[in-house]
Amino acid sequence: MFVLGHLGIGERLCRPWIRPYSLKAFWLGALLPDLLDKTTYYSLCWTTGLSRAALPVIHGTRSFGHTAIFLACCAGLELRKKSPFTQALTWGVISHLILDALSDQLIHFPQLPLLTYLPLLWPLSGDFPVSPHSDLAHHLLSANRPFFLVTELIGGILLFWRTRGSTTSI
To answer: Per-domain residue ranges for the chain?
Structure first.
């Protein structure tokens, strides 16, 4: 899933648990796992000249930011601070991980049970999953697949309706 899907669909899923004035914190949380992991992976690729399985430990764009450990850190921060910002941020991360697990179940690993979403269970699951993308350009071009186009369209529509002040549900 790409940006609009994570923002729009994620917000709709978590709306009961986030306050309207915490929306920016939710959006940050909804994008944070990808901001951390994609930046890390593609920076390693560019600086080492290696990619995918040739890289040690981090073999793709779903690593530390997509783990239960990272989610536990966010939840721990929320429990300590008890602020609307940290609560919304944590719900954003939760929505991101749920949406990624569902998209992986449908697209990349349909043969695996949902509870075996590989990065989430790291380090119990062994290595991080190997990226299906050879480079950033290939990754961006995967956005033309029907699943991603539909989720981006739905996310964009939900965000548009939100900015129009509509309370109409899909």
So the answer is: 3-163
